[in-house]
């Protein structure tokens, strides 16, 4: 829910570089950096954009200014998205796929419109030459958002759901960070951060012919504290820190009509849930020679989860789940020549079961219902990664292969509650599923990126990604996307930039989908998700020193496709026009 217009950059971190960022990605992290006025600028940026496939209008405003010892950044973004039109050219040969009887009209996917408002404000206050205080405030709110893949469901020749939508999604974030560059024997500088987030969402649905609307509400409060320190010790650089996070989840539910409300099962534990994390991490960059550098990382993390139930369906009213994890990692970086660099790393990762894993009650397809499992344990990964980088004035190449072995992998399987394999949920008798620790899983991957500067104006860029994942019983692992690649030709001359690119995704066959239904095989064809490709054209022209015009056409051939695991067809031919001004 972070608005892209507010983002300065995104970092993908793995191995020792990721130890400061927790456990969610099994040894990796995505770090999002929003824009800040570090250079004491005074500017106003205004960005307008229109997209034809969804009749979307986006307005973004970002201002930077300063006064005495304070620098400010303020952003406001408003977007209105209409119903999304899918492609009309069905090269895959499945004439009815995605062309839903009740939810599509002339390639327009009905009830897919929504709107959203985002706000950002940052203040960087210089207390002294060495100390700064940063205040970061973010807020976003959306309209109701319809669940298209539910509204297109059919039962006995009629539309199954009269309503299925998410209520407004709200996110509030506030942080205060103190940075001090005063050096002593323990550190050269440190940053202490405290932060608070509040997130709320809701789900609402009613079946055709029924009078009661099912409502489920979630509210999450997150409190963070972290102290990051940095110390230079001769040629070595040490980063270390301590921190904690408290998450409190409230979940309620009811059935309602125009006058009354009635009991309903909540999505998460209705007695409330609490998750507490404490952690210590360190990262050491150690030059071993003129060409060889070692990066060492470690993290100790203690996780305490407590969930409480007040309903009589399950044979427990409280779950307490504790996990203490210690991970370590090493990366060796070797500069073979001025143009060639080699990286090899081994790192461990972990992911503690969260409230979503342990306590969620929900159904995706009205055939199976996922129920809580109090016995889940943390899953761990062992990762080996090798990369080769080559860079010259004209050519840049990056090649990477990796292998991940996961122990105690969390995946969905069938189960029983009170000896029964099915329960009544939302008026339907459904087979029980729950998250379980399978003994192991493996993921193997290869990635290639290349850029060739044919001249000062013309360049060729390409990348290629391939992943394979299996569980210990040789069944497919969920969330593994198909092979994909992108090729682009870029041309720039004076104040103009031109790009034409092609994107390709291979088949994801039905037998490659996970058997528990996480990959949404029901939203694919009977054979899986067909191969798709798009051709896209973009042009940018700097009109003057303040204004830039951008135009593009995505999916020029108007091809119909769905991205892997998606319940909605992707955009058809889409004309994009934007105007960006900076004063």
Describe the SSE topology:
Blueprint: E1 7-14, E2 28-34, E3 43-51, E4 56-67, E5 70-81, E6 84-85, E7 104-105, E8 108-109, E9 114-126, E10 131-142, E11 145-146, H1 148-151, E12 154-155, E13 158-159, E14 161-166, E15 170-180, E16 189-207, E17 213-233, E18 236-256, E19 261-263, E20 273-287, E21 292-308, E22 318-335, E23 340-351, H2 355-359, E24 368-370, E25 379-391, E26 395-407, E27 410-414, E28 422-425, E29 428-437, E30 440-453, E31 458-471, E32 484-493, E33 496-505, E34 508-509, E35 528-529, E36 532-542, E37 547-554, E38 574-582
Parallel strand pairs: 24-29
Antiparallel strand pairs: 1-2, 3-4, 3-38, 4-5, 5-9, 6-8, 7-8, 9-10, 10-15, 11-14, 12-13, 14-16, 15-16, 16-17, 17-18, 18-19, 18-20, 20-21, 21-22, 22-23, 23-25, 25-26, 26-30, 27-29, 28-29, 30-31, 31-32, 32-33, 33-36, 34-35, 36-37, 37-38
Describe this structure in words.
This protein has 583 residues and is mostly beta strands. 2% of the residues lie in helices and 61% in strands. It is built from two helices and 38 strands. The protein has a 22-stranded antiparallel beta barrel. The protein is globular. It starts with 6 loop residues before the first strand and ends with a strand.
């Amino acid at each position: 829910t972070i608005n892209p217009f507010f983002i300065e950059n995104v970092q993908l971190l793995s191995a020792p570089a990721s130890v400061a960022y927790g456990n969610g990605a099994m040894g990796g992290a995505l770090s999002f950096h929003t824009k800040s006025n570090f250079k004491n600028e005074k500017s106003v940026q205004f960005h307008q954009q229109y997209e034809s496939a969804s009749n979307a209008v986006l307005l973004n405003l970002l201002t930077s200014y300063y006064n005495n010892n304070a620098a400010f950044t303020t952003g406001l973004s408003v977007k209105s998205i209409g119903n999304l039109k899918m492609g009309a050219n069905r090269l895959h040969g499945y004439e009815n796929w995605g062309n839903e009887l009740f939810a599509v009209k002339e390639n327009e996917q009905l009830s897919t419109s929504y709107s959203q408002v985002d706000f950002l404000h940052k203040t960087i206050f210089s207390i002294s030459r060495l100390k700064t205080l940063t205040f970061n405030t973010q807020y976003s709110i959306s309209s109701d958002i319809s669940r298209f893949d539910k509204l297109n469901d059919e039962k006995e020749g009629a539309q199954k759901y009269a309503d299925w939508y998410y209520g407004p999604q709200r996110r509030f974030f506030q942080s205060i960070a103190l940075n001090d560059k005063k050096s002593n024997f323990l550190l050269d500088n440190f940053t202490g951060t405290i932060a608070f987030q509040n997130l709320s969402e809701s789900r609402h649905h009613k079946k055709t012919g029924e009078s009661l609307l099912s409502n489920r509400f979630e509210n999450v409060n997150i409190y963070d504290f972290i102290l990051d320190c940095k110390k230079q010790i001769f040629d070595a650089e040490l980063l270390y820190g301590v921190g904690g996070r408290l998450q409190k989840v409230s979940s309620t539910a009811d059935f309602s009509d125009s006058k009354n409300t009635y009991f309903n099962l909540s999505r998460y534990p209705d007695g409330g849930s609490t998750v507490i994390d404490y952690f210590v991490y360190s990262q050491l960059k150690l030059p071993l020679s003129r060409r060889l550098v070692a990066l060492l990382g470690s993290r100790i993390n203690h996780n305490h989860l407590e969930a409480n139930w007040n309903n009589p369906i399950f044979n427990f009213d409280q779950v307490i789940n504790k996990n203490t994890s210690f991970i370590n990692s090493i990366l060796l970086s070797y500069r073979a020549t001025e143009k060639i660099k080699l990286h090899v790393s081994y790192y461990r990762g972990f992911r503690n079961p969260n409230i979503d894993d342990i306590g969620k009650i929900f159904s995706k397809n009205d055939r199976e219902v996922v129920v809580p499992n109090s016995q889940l344990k943390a899953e761990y990964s062992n990762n080996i990664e090798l990369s080769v980088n080559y860079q010259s004035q004209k050519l840049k190449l990056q090649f990477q292969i990796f292998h991940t072995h996961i122990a105690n992998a969390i995946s969905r399987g069938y189960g029983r509650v009170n000896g029964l394999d099915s329960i009544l949920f939302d008026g339907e008798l459904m087979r029980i599923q729950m998250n379980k620790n399978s003994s192991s899983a493996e993921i193997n991957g290869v990635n290639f990126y290349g850029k060739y500067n044919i001249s000062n104006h013309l360049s060729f860029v390409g990348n290629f990604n391939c992943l394979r994942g299996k569980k210990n019983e040789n069944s497919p692992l969920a969330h593994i996307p198909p092979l994909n690649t992108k090729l682009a030709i870029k041309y720039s001359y004076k104040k103009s930039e031109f790009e034409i690119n092609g994107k390709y995704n291979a088949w994801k066959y039905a037998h490659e989908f996970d058997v528990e239904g996480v990959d949404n095989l029901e939203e694919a064809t009977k054979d899986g998700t067909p191969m798709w490709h798009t051709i896209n054209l973009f042009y940018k022209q700097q009109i003057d020193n303040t204004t830039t015009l951008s135009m593009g056409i995505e999916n020029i051939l108007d091809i119909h496709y769905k991205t892997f695991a998606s319940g909605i067809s992707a955009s058809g031919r889409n004309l994009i026009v934007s105007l960006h001004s900076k004063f």
